[in-house]
Amino acid sequence: MKKNVCMFVWNHFTNDARVMRECTALSQNHYKVDLICIDDPKDDSINRFEEMNPNFNVYRVRRYPLLLELLQKVYQISLKNKMIGFLLLLSWLASAFVAPFIVLPVSGLLFLLWRTKLRVVWIRGSIILRMIARGWQRKYDIYHSNDLNTLPQGYICAKWRINRKKLVYDSHEVQTSRTGYDSGIYGKMEGFLINKIDSMIVENHTRAKYNEDLYGFYPGVVYNYPFKQQESVIEDEKVDLHELLNLPKDEKILLYQGGIQTGRGLENLVKAVPLFSEGTLVFIGDGRIKPTLLKMVEELNLQHRVKFIPKVPLKELPKYTRNAYLGFQVLNNVCFNHYSASSNKLFEYMMSGVPVVACSFPEIKKVVEENQLGLCVDSHNHVEISKAVNILLKDVELRNKMSQNSKSASRTYNWDLEKQNFYTIYDRLYIS
């Protein structure tokens, strides 16, 4: 008999490779999975409900409270039609005159929720409540929370009941030391909830040791490796980036793919471009600092050597990656989360036979140097980055050898093998 799993993730589930792999793996091995995530009203291509396969369904909860959406629509209508706006104002004035002790406090509260920082609390609080409500609708055997921002939902659904259920905490990041999580509240929240879980999963052994030092136990380790690709497909399926970007066919593409976010060394890549002996730097992805990079490229007059492509669907990404002469994974050491990363980006390059210029952090350096997949550098130094790039640009034979090494290594570093560790962690839930 299949066991029912309720999994939570705090995103739209459009490009979350790790969660997709885990849900798919469970659905293929004695489990039925319902994934609860967040709807994106701005994206018409996604639905509130999706059946990924007979044992794996996706439920997206409403992002915004109905009242907030109504207020927003009324406001927009008022701006477009001044007569309607005037009538609404008169109606409000009349109501306030008739029942001031009700209308004025309610109006004040709605204004605070709609136009101040309390709006964020309102939106996020509503999402959490909807996730919990959805998680309570069916009888699940296991609740699985991806990252700290869904652990309270999992805890309430799994443990606030007479017959308590198993709770898995799958921490993709180091919650107590990561960019954007500077408040001590995150550490306190994790420290409280960590004692309520039945099993924990982290991305690598460096993070597992960190967790052991912090909380006194060594969690399960599941590396974020991609699905194994057929080598024949690697060469055959490709989006022609040269044509897409109007580049000469022999132009070498120097690729960064992933989030355009702080702490990923992307400013150093742009600074290094004038020092590259040849090639075009291509960014595939979107993120908060993309406008900053675009401005930087313009100020340095590098538009002819730096190109940007918006985020592409996860399934399509390898077709773009295969165009690259080399790839970048140059995280900066701004927090332990970055320092301890064994980023899926590294393995995505590997799957496509793309050598890397990478940061010298323990998990990344170990894979790159032991398998001779590329060159590791001080990712804070754009001159060092440029030197490594120029070595691979000049020594084509070395680059091609590293490309072959990458294809060979992909037979080891892949989800087809790693998912066995994931199954083992789940199997232990009912043994312990």
Could you provide a short overview of the structure?
The protein is an alpha/beta fold and 432 residues long. The chain contains 19 helices and 14 strands.
Description of the molecule:
This protein is an alpha/beta fold and 432 residues long. It folds into 3 domains: 3-63 and 141-225 and 420-428, Rossmann fold, CATH 3.40.50; 66-117, no CATH class; 231-413, 3-Layer(aba) Sandwich (Rossmann fold), CATH 3.40.50.2000. It has 19 helices and 14 strands. The chain has helices at 17-27, 66-80, 82-98, 100-115, 118-136, 151-159, 185-193, 205-215, 231-236, 241-244, 266-272, 290-299, 317-321, 336-339, 344-351, 362-371, 382-394, 396-409, 415-428; strands at residues 3-8, 31-38, 49-53, 56-61, 142-146, 166-170, 199-202, 220-221, 253-257, 280-284, 306-309, 326-329, 356-359, 374-377. It has an 8-stranded mixed beta sheet with strand order 3-4-2-1-5-6-7-8, sandwiched between helices. Strands 11-10-9-12-13-14 form a 6-stranded parallel beta sheet, with helices on both faces. Helix 12 links the parallel strand 10 and strand 11 (306-309). Helix 1 crosses helix 19 (415-428), helix 4 packs across helix 5 (118-136) and helix 11 packs across helix 17. The longest helix is centred in the first third of the chain and has 19 residues, at 118-136. It starts with a strand and ends with a helix.
